[in-house]
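ugh ok so i messed up the first submission bc i forgot one of the chains. this is the corrected input, ALL of the components this time, i swear. 833 residues overall. if the numbers dont match what u have on ur side tell me asap before i send this to the collaborators (the ones from the other lab, u know who)
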Amino acid sequence: MAHQPDASTRFGLPWRFPRIGRASVQQVARREPAGPLQWRDRVHSRLVVCAALFAFWTAGIEARLVYLQVVNHADLTARAERQQTRTVVPPAKRGEIFDRHGRLLAYSVDADTIAADPSEIEDPDSVATSICNVLDGCTTDRRADMAKKLRRRGAFVYVARQVSPAEARKVKDLSLPGITLLKESRRYYPKAELASHVLGYVGLDNVGLGGIESAYDSQIRGKDGKVLIQTDAKRHALFSRVERPATAGADIELTIDQYLQYIAERELRAGVAENHAAGGTAMIMDPGTGEILALANWPTFNPNAFTRADDDARRNRAIQDLYEPGSTFKIVTASAALENHVITPETPIETSPGFITFGPRIIHDTHQYGLLSFTDVIVKSSNVGAIKVGLRLGPQLLGQYVDRFGFGQTLAPDFRGETPGIVWSPDRLDASALASVSMGYQVGVTPLQMATAVSSIANGGHLIEPRVVRAILKDGKRAEVAHKVLRNTISSETAATLTTIMEQVVERGTAKAAQIPGYTIAGKTGTAAKLVNGRYQKSDYNASFVGFIPSRKPALTILVVIDSPHGNGYTGGAVSAPVFKRIAEAALTYLGIGPTLNAPPPVLIARHDATDAPPPITRTSTRSIVAAAEPATSGLMPDLRGLSARDALRVLSRIGLTARMNGDGFVISQAPEPGAVLVSGDTCDLRLGRRPPVGLDAGGAQE
Amino acid sequence: MTAMDFEYAIKKDVRNNPIVREVDEARQRQLWRSMVIGLFLVVVLLFSAWQHFELLRHGYQIERMQQERAAEEDVNRHLRLEIETLRAPRRIEKIATEQLHLVAPSREQAIVIERVTPAAPPEKSVVAAR
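and heres the new structure output, hopefully the right one now
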């Protein structure tokens, strides 16, 4: 048999196939007597071991996965979210505060705050120095404080809050590691000191700390939002999802008139300066509605930098300070006496010998007046006369009227921290105390209470709740604060009698300095020695004057209280009455209230085109002072543009039209157009806006 | 078989050019189908990748625009604040009196203008006839 080359030889391969034939199998069988398939068992066992290891491995992985995805699910999800998402809280915009004509008084803008992550800062001192160098007015102490903060352990510290945009830009340019800039809402008062005591101020954490800002904080503050931002590996914002939008706070419309407020502040400041006084209060009120048109205090402060002002400057004297009103309180005594017919204006009262005694106590008049009518007792401000009237009234009756006029109780819900005042119980009033109360001593009142009481005489005997908030604007809706009559104090007849007496106080009495030619003014002066440490001072007085003008159709109640004047006298007539006069003059001119005595003929301007089609509205239009009455022509559509919604409705109802209104505030446009021929039962579409259209100041039509 | 025969068997020039391999139609169709499906999957993959990257790009763009909008609104608020600051009565009076040397009008100089109520309007018919 020829040699048969095996396949490896045939194909020239370097290795050889095992020669498996009967002989070789026999040889294997001889070497491994246990069995020919023994290797299979060995491989099988190895495979089993490998499979077991593989199973352990997979089981380990599965266990780990279960641990991570089930047991640790919540924790890891939270960690992933922390890494991949950022939560930003957009601060709610604090509501704005306007005056009664929509002029802005308080506003919020975003300001930059410098914050730091101390763990990322290696050299706190050098970082603090760098930041301090770019901040205005950074002192050594402040720098040391900054460095101390940066040395703290923790992930976050404020370095400087609410810095100016220029300062923030400089800090950003420094590119300091670990230093970041955050946005925070900051409150600004663009008119600075104007109405600062009414507005109050807001702290760094956007919380109102005084005035309206504090009293209406829950409504003005709004609600912060929440935005989830998905970030990439470099922490750049990729997507954002608004979880909860920031809700802006409500806007507040005050009864304050910016210009009247400015006048009151200016004249009060001048009055305090020229009398070398310690301070003062001036207030203008609408006696018919109880709306406070101006409320000024001196000293005052800038709410933009309220931390630099002391407590004395921040105190709202008009509602927080008590003073003994002195003779202005004789109005209450007179009201009680006249209302109860205890006395008439003509009743003679003997004031001789110019003083009255209560045991060891002697109360003097400034002059010996002799026999006076009750009118003259008030006009000349006789203490003895007022005491005698008070004694005739008795403590119960006088106490009842003190209470009716709102003394000894808080009146204004718009102010926090209002002092109720000090009023003695009638049961505790002996003759001496009754005498004191009759002439305005031994009672503590606030200027607000006194102005409110005198307003009730001006309006015919209604004590109206004094308000400083006129309306609250939220979500485009304006909720007007209703006027509230607290109670009737006196009858209208008594009010008229008292007004006549008070007119004579200005005409020929102690308040001649308050006279304004052409106007009738009803008022009363007051001079009260200040009580310090239980003793009445001989050099410090509260000089006050309160009155209303024009007295027969009162538009304004004005109160002026000057604290401790040391210049041109110390009496209310010499110190406060001139301030009253200056405020009243400017206010009357501003409000366009014409003289009531010997009035010059009014300048009448008739609209040229009263019966023609209305002229096109231009910025130079004089329609604000020249206007047609409603309706311009019967059968034609009146011009309602510029009227308030209420007035427009009144006009439309009078001419038998129905209105369909869109919006709030003043009429901006109307359909049918002014001058269009009317059809009975027609509907008028009114588009309203918060401000009257340019060139139309409240009234294309007038009532 | 000797080595020569084996070598011959390997080196034998086999001419099988004339042999034409028959096209397998079924396999061809399957191949095309597979290619179309593969192409479709690739297109889907590319489309989804494009979508993803577009989404990312637009996400960045939206965020940037939102930041720009917020910055503009911030500027707007600052400008409004500046306007209101410039409108402060005290500042205006200071400019009026000190720079422009204006004086407040006295009571005699101020004229109260009263509005006029026109006479009774004509009848509607008269107006309509006009």
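quick check: The first strand of chain B starts at residue 113 and ends at 115. that seems consistent at least. DSSP finds four helices and one strand in chain B.
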